[in-house]
C-alpha cells in the first residue's frame, strides 16, 4: 500500500525580483509513485525541481523531501535522492566505467561497492563491451540509460528526472520508460518533468503547470474525464487557453 508521503509541498514559491517562476504550488508524492510534473517549456518545472533537490532555496512556502526540510536540510536531501538533469550529467571525456566509478565515489560508496555497482550496471544495460569506450562515442539512447543508472548508483529513495527524454526519438523514449517502470517496481519513487504530454499516460499521477502554477493534478484518466478530453495533449491545450 502506498501511504507514505515522501514529498510534501505547501505554497512553495520561487521569486526573481517581481517575477514568480514558481507561484505557491502545493502537492504531495507517495512512496513508489511515478509522478509526472508536466508543463510547457518555461512553465516553472525545472525551477520547482531545483528547490526540491536542494539546488535552490525557496523564496517562501515549505516542503519536505524524504522527510527533510527543503529550506534547512538541503544537504541531507541530496544524500537521499538521485538526480538526472536534461544534459544527462555524464562526462563525455571519461569512459563508461570511469563515469560510474566517479559518481559512486561522489555518493560515498566504498571501492568494493563501486566495483560491484559498475559490473551490475554494465551487465543490466548490456554495456559490458563498451565499458572502456568514451561516453561521447555512445548513441544518445545509451547515454540516456547510462545517466539514469548512474543517478541510482547509491540506491536512492527518490529519483528526480528533469526532461530525461528530450531530443530522443519515440522508440528510445519508450525504452527509457521501461527502465523507469523497472526502477519503480523496486520501490523507488520517480519524479519526472516533461513537456511531452503523451508521457503523462505512463505516470500514476500528474500535475500540469501553467505560468508557475499547478492548474491540474490527478491521474491521467481522471484528468481526461474531468476535461472531457481524448488525450493529455487535449487536456493541456484546454488548460493553457
TrEMBL record:
The keyword Transport applies. This is ABC-2 type transport system ATP-binding protein. It is found in: Membrane. It comes from Flagellimonas meridianipacifica. The lineage of its organism: Bacteria, Pseudomonadati, Bacteroidota, Flavobacteriia, Flavobacteriales. InterPro entries: AAA+_ATPase, ABC_transporter-like_ATP-bd, P-loop_NTPase. It comes from the Bacteria. The keyword rRNA-binding does not apply. It is a multi-pass membrane protein. Transmembrane segments: none annotated. Keywords: ATP-binding, Membrane, Nucleotide-binding, Transmembrane, Transmembrane helix, Transport. GO terms for cellular component: membrane. Residues 7-236 form the ABC transporter domain.
